[in-house]
Amino acid sequence: MRILALLAVSLLAQFAISLAAHAGDVAELEILGFTGNGGIFAFEEYGVQDGSGFPYANRYYIDTADDSFLEGTPIRVRLDDENATLDAARLAARQKGEAIIKQAELTSNRGITAGFNPVTELSADPFRMVVNPRPIFSPVDDPLEFRLDEIGMNDTEACQSLGEINGFRLLRIEAKDGGKTELLHEDKSIPKSRGCPNGYRIGAVQTFSMQGLSAYAVLIAVRQYGFEGPDYRWIAVTGRL
């Protein structure tokens, strides 16, 4: 019996090591919200970096009128200490963010998470999301539909030896006008901040209303080559309605 017990412990240890070796780093997503007029959208991603074990927290502040970052952002914090806590990294990022937009304003205008598919969701379509933008039934708004296409970019500098590399295209499909499509974003090249991505999926749609539906953000999970396995980070495409 003792031999069997030791064998079981050994197998469990090997299994744990195998999982750790292929765990990767999936950043958590925290939707912070909008400014009071819907003009700015903000979100946070955070986690523990694979390989180094360093905690990080990144905050993004985006002008919904032209889908551009506010000056001085994104805010990126990484604490290069294995003993540092994730809470400490998040607090440091939040404190820096207060100089951009007060947390209280974002919290008061969080908007509606009209759709959400985490990277662990296996049954959802990663390239299409259709939502009723507000929880009003029967709906008073047209559905919001978004579709994502991956674009092969294997010639990306610094990524050529890694295998498949992709950019993306994001479309909005109009419910009226016979399904007219609007191009929201199309990569011409991959920014260095995105690393070496090989895949994408629509992870969430956040909407904001004043008198009526006025702004949205499409959160996209980016799959990258990581040190211990695939890493996931978040980006957003925003717009006004």
Automatic annotation (TrEMBL):
InterPro entries: DUF2259_secreted (IPR018725). It holds the Pfam family DUF2259. The keyword Signal applies. It comes from the Bacteria. Keywords: Signal. Residues 1-23 form the signal peptide. This is DUF2259 domain-containing protein. It comes from Mesorhizobium wenxiniae.
